[in-house]
Design goal:
- This protein is mainly alpha-helical.
- It has 16 helices and no strands.
Length: about 450
């Protein structure tokens, strides 16, 4: 059943999409937290190995994540315009693309992980632990990428509950599998086995749900213009994800100079940060689904109302996150590590993060707006500046001037706030331009008639 997001109460629709998505991604983050917890049970080295693997694997998955977001926007616009048959063929071509991407990720990943890990300073048993984990996960990357594309098609139809349901189940299954494999002596490789198994089950369930929708109807033809359109739509969010992964890589690279405990703390801190902004991620998903359909239907005033409501809800979330991160940061870090140095550094990191939660919300919402109205090109430049250029310049200067890691975190916070202001101004102007363009076309059509 395809939801019509071009009608009805905006706040009700936003909540109905955002809450299931938030719950789903909350459990997805808790899923990753579970991996972090069991890695900490093995050793500090195992915990650091998972932290080191995260930016590398995220780097490899960037194309799948970005293209799946582009697919959601393209199909959502087609549905909003009433082009159901085209949406069906787009969906099938999109699933074919997911297979191609997963093959490339697997081949490139297996050939590059050793080099990338060494660049992050891993060697000896530390390097081996990192490779034991990431190589297994890369071999199962098809399940993850296929799941992303299938879920993108569900999102385009306004279905955020299916993903929520399977993520809740995967979370509990992952606990059982992590515990079992670690107790059996598989170490970090066991955590990777658990990840691949749960991703496989998730992919099967999501495909089952998609198969019950009209988007897998009869008929298929290879649509070359669609791929060109999808690449144009998906390339900016892909580069956004790619730069995000490179950004984490850069931060980890510079943080590694401060010691293994800082790397371990960074992994913990980023997991806690993900939980704090999870409702905002849910709101972001809802905005993309709603804006895509309303853009296709040319309901621009409704889009403005969607953005206003999304920012209001995000502000509430940000205030709650600020209070929690400021009051109990040490207790949160201590859930994953008993190392005093990890805890003390984590307190500083999380208190800085508390001040930029709403800035993240602004970035997510207005990036979703640009994707939804099919004006995503600016995302490339924004991400390049925020994730790569500014951090490289600031971190290179800072690490030469001081040995205090707090300035690393402050420089990243500055980049986030600056990016939030820029994307807010730009996205609003692009929405206005698209509205004026549509109005001009209508005038021209009336004159012709």
């Amino acid at each position: 059943m395809i939801k019509d997001l071009t009608q009805g109460d905006i706040k009700t629709a936003l909540r109905s999409l955002a809450i299931p998505a938030t719950i789903g991604y909350l459990f997805h983050t808790l899923y990753n937290v579970t991996d972090t917890y069991f890695a900490g049970m093995i050793s500090t080295e195992a915990l650091a190995a998972l932290s080191l693997s995260f930016p590398v694997f995220f780097l490899l998955l960037a194309v799948g994540i970005g293209m799946s977001e582009g697919l959601s926007a393209v199909v959502g616009n087609a549905l909003g315009e009433g082009r159901r048959d085209e949406a069906v063929n787009m969906s099938k071509n999109g699933l074919l693309l997911s297979l191609i991407i997963s093959i490339l990720v697997t081949v490139i990943g297996l050939l590059s992980t050793d080099f990338l890990m060494r660049q992050l300073g891993a060697e000896g048993s530390y390097l081996q632990s990192s490779l034991d984990y990431i190589d297994v996960v890369i071999l199962g990357s098809f399940f993850m990428i296929a799941g992303m594309f299938i879920n993108a098609l569900l999102y385009a139809q306004g279905d955020t509950t299916s993903f929520r349901n399977i993520l809740v189940v995967s979370f509990f299954l992952n606990i059982v599998l992590d515990y079992s494999f670690v107790k059996m002596g598989f170490g970090v490789k066991g955590i990777a086995y658990a990840t691949v198994a749960t991703e496989f089950i998730s992919m099967l369930y999501l495909f089952y749900r998609l198969n019950k929708t009209p988007l897998l109807g009869k008929g298929f033809y290879f649509d070359r213009p669609f791929y060109i359109h999808l690449i144009k739509q998906g390339l900016p969010p892909t580069t956004n994800m790619l730069f995000m992964a490179l950004g984490v890589f850069i931060i980890t690279y510079y943080a590694a100079d401060f010691g293994q405990s800082i790397v371990a703390m960074l992994g913990i801190g980023m997991r806690i940060e993900q939980i704090a902004i999870m409702p905002i991620v849910g709101i972001n998903i809802a905005v993309l689904s709603m804006v895509s359909q309303n853009s296709g239907a040319a309901q621009y005033e409704r889009i403005r109302s969607i953005i206003k409501a999304a920012l209001g809800y995000s502000l509430y979330v940000s205030i709650i996150a600020f209070v929690v991160l400021m009051l109990v940061p040490g207790q949160l870090v201590a859930l994953f590590s008993s190392d005093p140095s990890v805890i003390s550094e984590g307190i500083v990191f999380l208190r800085i993060e508390a001040f930029i939660v709403f800035a993240f919300a602004v970035i997510f919402i207005f990036v979703a707006l640009l994707q939804g109205i099919e004006r995503p090109n600016f995302i490339f430049y924004l991400s390049l500046a925020r994730q790569i250029v500014l951090p490289l310049i600031l971190l290179e200067i800072i690490t030469r001037l001081t040995n205090d890691v707090i300035y690393v975190w402050l420089s990243i916070a500055f980049s986030v706030v600056l990016a939030a202001v820029v994307v807010w101004l730009y996205a609003r102007s692009e929405l206005l331009k698209k509205e004026l363009s549509h109005a001009s076309q209508n005038v021209d059509n009336r004159e012709v008639v």
